[in-house]
Amino acid sequence: MSLLEGINTPRDLDSLTPEQLVQLAAEVRAFLIAEVSKTGGHLGPNLGVVETTIAIHRVFDSPRDAIVFDTGHQSYVHKLLTGRQDFSRLRQSGGLAGYPQRSESPHDVVESSHASSSLSWADGISRAFEMTGQTDRHVVAVVGDGALTGGMTWEALNNISDDNSRNLVIVVNDNGRSYAPTIGGMARYLNTVRTKQGYRQLHQSSRRLFDHLGAPGRAIYRGVRGGLHGFLSRVTNNVSLYANLDIKYVGPIDGHDLHAMEEALRQAKEYAAPVIVHAITEKGRGYEPALTDVADQFHAVGQIDPETGESLTAPSGRPSWTGVFADEIVRQAEADDTIVGITAAMLRPTGLHKFAERFPNRVFDVGIAEQHAVTSAAGLAFGGLHPVVALYATFVNRAFDQVLMDVGLHQAGVTFVLDRAGVTGPDGPSHHGMWDLAILQVVPRIRLSAPRDAERLREELAEAVRVTDAPTVLRFPKGSVGPDLPALRRTGDGVDVLREDEKKDVLIVAVGTMAALALEVASLLAAQGIGSTVVDPRWVVPVPWSVIELSDAHRLVVTIEDGVRVGGIGTRIRQDLREAGVDTAVTELGLPDEFLEHASREEIMERVGLTAPQIAEDVIAQVQGNKIPIARPVNAEQPSYQRLVR
User: Fold this and answer.
1) Of these four, 32, 256, 359, 450, which has the most CB atoms within 10 Å of its CB?
2) pLDDT tens-place string over residues 263-322
3) Are the beta carbons of 348 and 326 closer than 8 angstroms?
4) 448 near 541, Cβ under 8 Å?
5) Is 433 within 8 Å of 418 (Cβ atoms)?
6) Across the chain, what does the average pLDDT equal?
7) Alpha helices of 336-453 — where are they, by DSSP H?
8) Which is catalytic among the residues 35, 51, 282, 370?
9) Residue 471 in contact with residue 414, Cβ under 8 Å?
10) Does the structure show a pLDDT above 50 at 534?
11) Given 29, 91, 225, 283, which residue is catalytic?
12) Is 200 a catalytic residue?
């Protein structure tokens, strides 16, 4: 039996010798490479925290001591050491989540994996321990260096440093990267510490001295190197940013040196006060394909060949949504020199990398700081530019106040491009982009668009960047773009009619990529003698007037969206119909107001009832059961109608 197979709880680590710990680290890396290559997942980050995680679990007593990961994608090693070694269905339905999950283990504390929140969690937990008399319990926050670029981190540090009586240890996992290389002044500071000549020279000289003494010297070195790291760091790094925060600082430590990490953590544990342990690590450690991948060091992978790192997923032959946007924003920027790009540590994942390569002085990566990105965009707009803020849809949630008060209130011409909108699948609850439509539509004057295909993405982006007096949003999903869906006709206010049967039983309003699903539903309804009209509004907020007119001409309106149903586009259409005096019944189809567990997109869509057969069955029951009244003509004279027209 391997050493790893014998680890069922963290306390099984206590009896291992230094040599066995090194062997265990090697086994963990081999396990991760073999298993994650089959399922996909966050490989590079976890290869980089093997020794650091082992050391944390050797020194602290989880779950009595709370361990918080920021972000949670670096928790695979933690899962292995806490009895979860079946990775066969990692990030798949019924298998382990790709992030910490309380339902899996009492060792998991924080499930949300939006970055930069761990220190606030740690602050709250440690205060609770102190206030309830549990002064022997510790809190450990494992913070990726990229998370330090987020504003919440500094708000938390401000409060942590105001009260130095708590058992709180902050492990800075400093690998110089978040998703891609970490940017900003904080990153430059850490890089200075990491590469400081005095520290490196003293450390190397001391090691050579002990090596010169042969085997006895090397044994002595192993015994003192943890303290030596701390001493040298104090000698060469007296002016520490962290010291200025009145928080004790230990480091920098070689995060792959198990003994040094243990010594540093034990030292931190004994302080009985907030401590920062600065660990230097290497993302992708021990796996050559990751180390040679300059772009993201195998941050997240699909199924790969474990030997070569080559993808085993056959290309679809279709471009990705992100790729279409990446090419189109360059074309738009070439034609309009007021267009600038902003992203939050997601330059390549959101497709702004091509824009940055073409116009390096017109794209800004602000680090993991969505709030700052949005308000900075408002400032750029005030200065006469048109910012395009590219984020994952789930991360715009973090900057809602800035969208509302800094962009919306000031009528700033800012375009938000939201990638990974809707159900994203295996990354789970915190990463589904399902709230943006409901959240953002409450911003006055905002305009929301959802392209159904690549051509509409290009078209709607061009329209969005021409709006100078209000925020605009373009949202699209993860994955490959399907075939273009041409319209039969376009109404005067820009609504595309994709299908128009002679019988006007059901109007299906499709939001973005739900158009293909809507056409499938219409075909199934036609087979039962039910006539449909399928429309893609293109711009779903504000609701185009032609959607109201078409609703008036049908017996039933069905809206289909891949956002949360509560407060979604269907709800908005229902409200506008009532405002106009149209009493056509509305069936709003979308995602339920719950946190959706990790599974494939197809599995989730089937579970929530968003498949063509399920939708058609429901509509048929409504129409054939005579539950749907005949719509009355709109009253063009009533005040609510006049307000909508204006």
Assistant:
1) 450
2) 999 999 988 888 889 898 888 887 887 777 656 666 777 787 777 878 777 677 789 999
3) no
4) yes
5) yes
6) 85
7) 353-358, 370-382, 393-396, 400-402, 436-440
8) 370
9) yes
10) yes
11) 283
12) no
